[in-house]
Structures are given as structure tokens and as C-alpha cells.
Amino acid sequence: MSVKLDLHPTTKKWIVGVFLVGVSMIMLLGFLNLAGPIGKMFTSESFQLLGWAAPVLPFIFLILGLIFFSSKERTIWASGILGSSFFILGLSAILDIVSQAGLKRGGAIGYWLAILPQKGFGAIASFIFFVSIVIVGLLLLFNYPASSEISDEDEDENGKQNSVVRWLKLVVFPLNRLKSMLFLISRPFLPKLSKPSLKSEPFISSSAPQFKVHKLEDEYDASSALKDKTNFDDEIKVRPAKLSVPYVMPPLNLLDEDRGKPTSGDIKANMHIIKRTLANFGIEVEMGEVAVGPTVTQYTLKPAEGVKLARITALSNDLSLALAAHPIRIEAPIPGRSLVGIEIPNHAVTLVRLRNLLENEQFQGSQYRLNFALGRDVAGNPVFSALEKMPHLLIAGATGTGKTIALNSLLISLLYRNPPSILRFLLVDPKRVEFPVYNGTPHLLTPVIVDVQKTINALRWAVKEMDRRFDILAGVKARDIGMYNRELKRGQEPMPYIVIIIDELADLMAARGKEVEAVIVRLAQMARAVGIHLVVATQRPSVEVITGLIKANITSRMAFQVASQIDSRTIVDNAGAEKLLGNGDMLFMSAESSKPRRLQGAYISEKEVKRVVEFLKRDFEPEYDSEILDPQKATSGDFNGGEDVFGDEDPLYEEAKRLVIQARKASASYLQRRLRIGYARAARLLDILEERRIIGPGEGAKPRDILIGSSDNLINDDQSDMEEDNE
User: Among its keywords, does the record have Cell division (predicted)?
Assistant: First the structure.
């Protein structure tokens, strides 16, 4: 009877890695004559076959073992094995070519590999050919595209690249890659290391070797777009982060894998109960397929002709009673299908780990830079989206339902796709406990912002940066940031994307509601083309926080579990979020589909977040921009969304004040009629008067109170006017 070992993929990978490292150690001992007669025999045979290339074998096996430890992708393993073969065979052939006649320093293999090329092309051409084979072997072994790493950031003002820096990078990168492999293996056993202090220089880095990001194909002729234009580099305030060593994306080994499988219960029995319960109320249905997801199981059914869907949805509580399951959600109809879906909670749920989603080909092969993992749908299929398509995202739900984990998943997904030269973050955390772990990440423009006033300054700076970027795009006739970056001349710095993430909007709206709403609305309306994207989260989905203007301009939304149907309609304009299960169960609505889609959000633990952040902080120092939080430099003169407009700049303020005091009443319609202005300006004048305590706050249909007397105030005004005339 055969016994089948059901080993975890990680266990298999470590077994192979340990075996290869062990073999390398034994081979090394054999070459040192410390492995007994068998080791001595192996050493002798190796020298006969490979000649002087034989001592390289232990190191080749060691590197292969480290590759198996540090990568899960089978393509990486295959390239490592193929590259090591090319390297060792090419080296033995080179040694045979350069050896004197009859010595065979490349061994028997080197001799037979080199003899035919030498007879056909000569020694020099054969030498060049096998050197090329050795270089290709090294590139495959380290999975290193040298041309993409040696980019244009080292070019001087004359456009000539420093050749010393270029060749140093060819040597440094494999060593840096080897260091990363060793760190991943030894990380559980190492003490906490202090962060090295490195100065930052402007750097345009490339994608990680472990992670393939397909760039958008050029759609325009870039040869002449920027040649005759003014150089706008000095105007770009957000510059790529300056890195003193080549940027390496964090490996997926830092994240945990999926564990366990969901348990849906007795599917056949549930199908029978659903059909019988509906039949008891006079509704005939035909049961369809069943999809088992990580959190819920969806039972599909097709009602008989003439049956109103409202009759089925009205039986939600009766089905919940019959199935002994709560809560259940009825999707009628399923988008794109002539079926009704009944979603029943699983008996045992499973976490949707972020790592398995990031390993998916849909994520790795995406053409979008800001692609990120959302989770899995009710059928267990992975779901991804991109901020370029959204272009902004609103997240809402009750406390503890998964909002912060969703933000962490979005952040880590973006960090796995983009170096600091491509993406920068502004993180706002009024709660002060969620985002501080990201402090020190090279992608941050500022430390995590926790103060309300600094948040206002940062948002105003973002509006100013948006206007500046529009001027730059207009100057080079580029439609958007993607077209601008594709048409850059060699040596020019790209325009990085900026993602602004606000973890709790309610706190900001309570403190400075009008200013925050105005700047968010303006960014949401215009910032997409220049690569600035908003991600806003709140645990209080009320109309005071998620105002009509914010909803109208942020069409992509995530709704986690909420307390009432009213809150659900506030977020996604539909009921259903009140029936979610929590723990990452959500409804996602994008601009592409007006109907929410149920997903189980991607999960990432705090430990995983810390691993990724520590990996990024080991070699790179952040480069913060102090101007962003400076109130004087952040304020834009032509921006009318902040408190700048609530002052005496309005020439009608004094006249409005006199009219209100004399008439002893204050309303927008009264000021509209007397001053012949629009409603928006009249309402703004009322806000100014209320702020300066001339009138009281509005109380529904009741008239506002006039807080100061008419005669005293007018006398004071006349006296002040006379004093000003005398001066």
C-alpha cells in the first residue's frame, strides 16, 4: 500500500533548498580533502570533467539553494538551474580555449565544447562566444535584467553616463540580491537591526527582479514631443526618492500563505430547504449551481416565469429561519445573469491572504501601475482593481469590520509594484494608531500626519501641486501623467504618482468640515489626470461626513458591515451592507458597475506589514518634503476652498452686516434680494457673519438670532470709519 505525503509547498521548497545547501557544503569539504574517500573520488572526477571550473560547483549549488529558499515562483527556479548550467559549461570551455596545447584546463567537457567552435570560427571568436554564454548564465542565475537596472539617473548634464557607476552596478546588484536571499533565510534568527544612515540622491529605479510589472506600450511618437519644450524639471516639486543603492522590491516570502479551506455545510440539504421554503409561499424555482467562497456560499436559482423578484427578496427572514443561518443576503438578479443568488454564511470561513493574491498572474501581468488586490468574490475568484481606473476610493463601515486591514492591503500591494521613483504617499491618521508603522518608508512624502491643521496644509499643498502639474502637462501637450512619463527625454526625472490616504474622515470633518470637503472635492474632480489619487476611509457613514459632493465625485466605494440600512444606502446607494458578516466581508462598487459586488477582503496581519516595512527601511532613508506641512508654502493663492475666503476679502461683507443688523433678520434669500447676488455667495456671507458672532447658528425653520444691538454697532462702525479717514 503506497503512502502519499501531502506536504505544504513551502515545506517542499525548503527540503530542496536544504538539500542543495548541504550538497554544496559536502562538495566544498571534498575539495578541501575533508570528505573521506568518496569526497576525494568526487573531486577527482570533477576536475577530470570540468577542469579548473570544478571548484565553482559548491558555490553554484549554494546559490541555487538560496534561490529555492527565497522564491516560490517555479520560473525563478528554472532560470537559476539553466543559468548555473550555462555559467559552469561556458567557464570550462573558456578555460580550455586559453590553456596551452595539451593541458586541458577546462576538463573533458570544456575540451569537447570548445573544439568544434575553435575549428569553425577560431580561438578569438570562440572565446567571445563562450564569454557571452557565461554572462547569460549569470543573468539567468540572478534573474537580473542589467539594462533596466542601469538606467538614466546617473547621466550627467551633458547626457553622458558615468561608466564607473555603470559597471559598479553590474557587480553590486548580484551581491545585493544575494544579501537579500541571506536576510530572508536568517530573518527569524536575527536580532532587531538598527537602520543604516544613508544619504539620498535622485534615483529612477526599476522593477524588482522577483516581480514582473509589464509597462504600458508606447502609444505616441516620443521622438519630438519634448525636444523643443522648456525643461520643466525644476517645477516638479515631488521628485523621485533618492536612493544610494539599486532599489529591490520586497520578496513575497515576507507575507504568509493561505491556510485551511471553507466549510459550507450540507449543500444538497440547503438546496432542498430553499426550494421547499419558496414553494410553501407559492414560488416555484429551479435550483442552479452552487459557488463556495471564503466566507459565504452562493446558491443560485431561476424563478418560474411571472414571479416577481420582490416576492423572493421579501422572504429573506423566512429563508434565514428555515436554514438556521443568519444573516443571509439575496442578490436579485445576479449582474449579467438571469438568476437569483442566495448567500448563506459558511460554517467555517477562511482568510484570504494577500500573498496568494499578489502571486496571481492577473496582478503580476497587469498594465496598471496602481493595481492592487481587493480580495475574492463569492465564487473564490481573485479580484483586483486599479486606482488609475477608479480614480478615487471611499471606504466606510463600522468599527472593527476590516477598514484598516483593507487600507494596509492596498498600501502593501502598491509597495510591491512601485519603487519610490514611481509612487509617493501622503498618509493621514487622526487616530494616531494605524499608520505610524509606515514612518521611515522611502515612499512617504512626509511622516504620517496626525494633526488636523497639518492635514489641511497637506491637502492645500496637494491642490497647489495639482495645478502645477497641469501647467507642466499643458506645456508639453501631454494628456495625462502616463503620456508625460512615456515621452520623457533620457535623463529627465519622471513625474511620480501621489496617493493620499485618509484613515478617518469623520474627525477631520468635525474639526474643519468646510475646508476639508472643499479640497477633497476639488482633488476628486481634477487630480486624476496628473496622477494624484485619494483614498478616504471613515467609520461613521453619515451624510454629515460623506456629503453629497464627496459621494458625487468619488464613485468607487467599499462598504463593510454597518449598523443600519440607512448607513448602507449612504455608502453604496443600496441596502445590503447591514447584512454583512464583518471581518473583511464587504460590498465593492466601482465606476464600471453601479451595483455592489460582494467580496471577502484581502487580509494582512500587523506582523506582515512590519516585515515589509522593515525590509524597505533596512537600506533606504526616507526623503521628506518640509514644504508640504508649511502653512505659508502649502496655501495656494487661487484656491477658494479653505478659510481664506471667510474673511473681509468679500467686498459685500460690511454691507451685508449692516443690512442684517438694521433689519434684525438674517437669511440667504434676504441677502440675495437686497444685494442681488447668488445663493452660494449669500450663504457664504451668512457663514462669515456667524463665525464673527454677528448672528447665531441656524436652527431649522427658525430665524437666526441677531447677537448685537443695532445702534451700538452702527456707532462703533461710524467711529472706526472716521478714525480710518483721519489716518
Answer: yes
Say whether 397 counts as a known binding-site residue.
Answer: yes
pLDDT digits (tens, 9 = 90+) for 475-513: 888 888 988 988 877 667 788 999 999 998 998 888 888
CB atoms within 10 A of CB 705: 13
pLDDT at residue 674 tops 70: yes
Return left, alpha or beta for 232; rule: phi > 0 is left, psi -120 to 50 is alpha, else beta.
Answer: alpha
Q: Is 263 annotated as a binding residue?
A: no
Spatial contact of 592 and 389, defined as CB atoms under 8 Å apart: yes
Query: What are the pLDDT digits (tens) for 57-72?
Result: 888 888 777 777 665 5
Whether the per-residue pLDDT at 371 is higher than 80: the answer is yes
Distance CA 517, CA 310 (A): 38
**Residue of 644 and 478 predicted with greater confidence:** 478
Task: Give the whole-number percent of the chain exceeding pLDDT 70.
Answer: 76
Q: Are 53 and 107 in contact (CB under 8 A)?
A: yes
- The residue behind cell 443600519 is 564
SS3 state at 270: helix
Residue 157 has pLDDT above 80, yes or no: no
Strands 382-386 and 371-377: antiparallel
Delineate the domains of the chain, giving CATH numbers in brackets: 9-143 (no CATH), 267-345 (3.30.980.40), 373-634 (3.40.50.300), 646-726 (1.10.10.10)
pLDDT tens, 293-308?
Answer: 898 999 999 999 989 9
Are 606 and 424 a contacting pair, CB within 8 Å?
no
Residue 262: is the preceding peptide bond cis (ω within 30°)?
Answer: no
- Cβ(257)–Cβ(360) under 8 Å? no
Q: Is 11 annotated as a binding residue?
A: no
Render pLDDT for 422-455 as a digit per residue (tens, 0 to 9): 999 999 998 888 899 999 999 999 999 998 889 9
Q: Which residues, including other chains, have CB under 8 Å from residue 130's CB and lie 6 or more apart? A: 90, 93, 94, 97, 113, 114, 117
Was 51 annotated as part of a binding site? Answer: no
Phi, psi for 206 (deg, rounded to 5): -110, 180
Beta bridge partners of residue 290, listed in sequence order? 299
Residue 21's SS3 state is helix
Edge-to-edge strand list for the sheet holding 593-601: 382-386, 371-377, 593-601, 585-590, 556-559, 393-396, 532-538, 497-502, 423-428
* 404 known member of a binding site: yes
SS3 track for 127-193: HHHHHHHHHHHHHHHHCCCHHHHCCHHHECCCCCECHHHHHHHHHHHHHHHHHHHHHHHHHHHCCCC
Query: What's the predicted TM-score (pTM) here?
Result: 0.59
Residue 687 predicted with pLDDT over 80: yes
